[in-house]
Amino acid sequence: MKSNFIYKSILAVAILGMASCKPELKDITPTKGSADFSRYIAVGNSLTSGYADGGLFLEGQQNSYPLMIAEQMKAVGGGAFATPFFKDSEADGSGHLVLKGFDAKGLPQLAEQKDRLAVRPGSGAVTLFTKYTGDLNNYGVPGIKLAHITAGVYGNLNGFYERMLPTDAPGNTTPYLEFVTAKPYTFFSMWLGNNDILGYASSGGANPNDQPTPKAMFSGLYNIAVNKLTEKEAKGVVATIPDVLSTPYFNTVTLASLLAAVQVSAPTVKDIYIKTGAGATRPATAQDYFVLPFLSAGLLGVPTGGIPYGLHPLNPVDSRWVLDKDEAAIVADYTNAYNATIKSVAAAKGLALVDAYALLKEYGAGKDVNGIRVSAAFITGNIFSLDGIHLTPLGYSIVANEFIRSINSKYGSSIPIVDVTKYRGVKFP
Amino acid sequence: MLIKSKINISYFPKINRISINNYPNMKKIVLSFLLGLPILGYSQSFQVNLQGQKQTAMGGAGTGLALDEAAVFFNPGAVSFLKKNGVQAGISPLYLKTAFRENGSNITEYNKDKIATPVMGYAVFGSPANRLRFGIGIYTPFGGAMHWKEDWTGKFTVTSLDLQAIYIQPTLSLKITDNIGIGGGLVYSLGKVDLRRAIPITKPNGEISTAKLKGDAKDFGWNAGIYVQTVSGVSIGVTHRSQITAKVKGGDAIFDVPDALRATMPTKFDAELPLPATTSIGLGFYPSDKTTIAVDVNWVHWNKYKELAFDYDNNARIPDTKSPRNYHDAAAFRVGIQNQTTNRLALRAGIAYAMTPVGKGYVTPEVPDADRLLLSAGLGFKASERFLIDLSFLYENVKARNETNIETGLSGEFKTAAYIPGISFSYKW
């Protein structure tokens, strides 16, 4: 009797505690709010395609922000999402950079990975890729400008677009905007406009064929694009253009770092001479931006015609390696004007807006994300890939979450965010 | 009064929800106890309050009682009032489950199932007729065991922490008058720490890097108390256990990183962790011959835990880290009751409320602390005049807490519950 009582007591006490062993958090039921995610399409450029490390390749495509968003949308009625993946046998796509190590000075050694390219034999001036046939939801085309979206011939000029089209170049006549809207969709994201200023900036303002798209033209085309995308009542999200001047592409090679490197062997050197976009030769200042490829070009100080390159007014650093102060001001001005257009069109059309300009400024300045320190530092910052402009999978996951937050707040949906810690930063050897 | 106002009465319905249907669950849990590893859980931040089975069953109160050999820990001044000499040994297998959900996510993650097994043992010698008595105690006042899955979202903050400090305390206790006893002991602390986390550096195979920090510490402290039996029949105890700063010198820092970075990583580290002082006051009431009521208040001097700093021997890539903790002092309130139901059987129950020392913004996943409610029950069985068995069960309900850590940016909700059965055997003479 007594021992029976003891056993019962032990049992009662044990069960009391064990009854609900796992602590429970309040249930969350994701909802789609006022939006319909059953067919989501992603319209955009390289950032949308998953371009990284100076190329478009399979791993980058698998880590594009639209694919991440689409996976999360499945919790709230999102449908299948097709990406024009390169085949496994052509996984290197257009070729891409890899980090091979560091030299004695600690400078990164990059190499191009091109074992399994998707380049079509017989490509001419335009590099063409193995055709993709199949469903499409990610319409990201590396290199496309807003200025290109209504041009019928563009399908013959950009191999990344050409590979999505049924017809071989030079027979294409479908403008990008027509192509992406041909099949019904319920939700879109559009992140276009970056290349309308990026090409100018990354070429140091020196390429006469790659000048900024005029502001009025940008505004006109942006309205055309959004009107077209929303004409069948689809809802969507658009994003502003990041500040290219805050990327590692323009901030890794600095006047101070170049001078320090030169002064190791030539301590008397005080100036580096540059040729400006306006054609003047002058000493560089901290307001001038040297582009990232100048690091590996290995030109500085090497005599040409008996004069060390960049160290004498008679042999200045060429304009294409430098975005000088005046050119940088042009970049800032156009970026601000484009972004003003994007914001006002988004507001007028009631679209969700991602301020990618502010987002990448914030993370670029240095931020801790789930214990990961990220910044705009080249390689060590973890969010910018090896080309210094495009993002790593980690960087794209941060962008994806910002799109999700923006969509949720605009349409009252609750698409779950992605776990950014599942995505890699820069890969080290 | 303070206690009443702080206890959330809504926890109580859980007690009534005892159902035999849960029995299979219990079986599974008992099995996992047997498979458990020897690691520890915590009771207020990383303080562990499982020093005696009788006291654990009474909500952890006992500073104002001369209850048994565990007085060596609870109040060295009461040791000289023990009616018999004795030796006891016990164990409290601890099952702790924490849920975490990142804000914006729909995924709840749990820590791994691990059973901690803090042990305790005490002996009291000397003639009960004498004023001077001797005691020795071995117990575990601090510990932590938190094991998350290697790929969980907070992996860059911590994947696992095993921490324990075993105190060995030889004790003298002197009855200065028939009603007043003082006692004190030297504490020798054996500390161990094993901290693991992921490092956001991607290896060539796409896996992330990891770090493991392992070290030992041996330090000294003390424990002293005074015990008074008042004429009104109420007994009073006041104790102070000193702070011990566990110092790890030359601990092993094991970094698993890409080859290109291996030479830049530290291999040794120094660190210090304050194991805070605790001041307690306790009262004992004896409403009848068979009933004892204990009321304790503990004041834990957590404010000394300002930061967790790691000093590495190689800072080429990993700087020394100083993680802010900024704990503040925190109190715990405990009430317990014992009823000597029959000659052989004593029943016990208790309730306690422990306030968290962790301020807003400082909650970390290795110790996801919050205010907590403790409910306990137990029984003592006198098998013979000399041989006793005590059983206890403690349930801890740690409040849900939604926090964004100011250091790591990890943002989400934690909820923890702990289930701690315990058993001890004592032999008296």
From TrEMBL, chain A:
Is Hydrolase among the key words of this record?
yes
Q: Which PROSITE patterns match?
A: PROKAR_LIPOPROTEIN
Q: Name one Pfam family in it.
A: Lipase_GDSL
* Signal peptide start-end: none
InterPro entries referenced in this protein's UniProt entry, alphabetically: GDSL (IPR001087), SGNH_hydro_sf (IPR036514)
Name the UniProt key words of this record, in alphabetical order. Hydrolase
Q: Name one GO molecular function term.
A: hydrolase activity, acting on ester bonds
Protein name per Swiss-Prot or TrEMBL: GDSL-like Lipase/Acylhydrolase
Automatic annotation (TrEMBL), chain B:
Q: Which UniProt keywords apply?
A: Cell outer membrane, Membrane, Signal, Transmembrane, Transmembrane beta strand
* Taxonomic lineage: Bacteria, Pseudomonadati, Bacteroidota, Sphingobacteriia, Sphingobacteriales
Q: What is this protein called?
A: Long-chain fatty acid transport protein
Q: What is its main location?
A: membrane
Membrane topology type: Multi-pass membrane protein
Subcellular locations according to the entry: Cell outer membrane
Q: What GO cellular component entries does it have?
A: cell outer membrane
Q: Which family does it belong to?
A: Belongs to the OmpP1/FadL family.
UniProt-recorded Gene Ontology molecular function terms: long-chain fatty acid transporting porin activity
Q: Does the keyword Hydrolase apply?
A: no
Pfam families, per this entry? Toluene_X
Which InterPro entries does the annotation name?
Answer: OMPP1/FadL/TodX
For the keyword RNA-binding, the answer is no
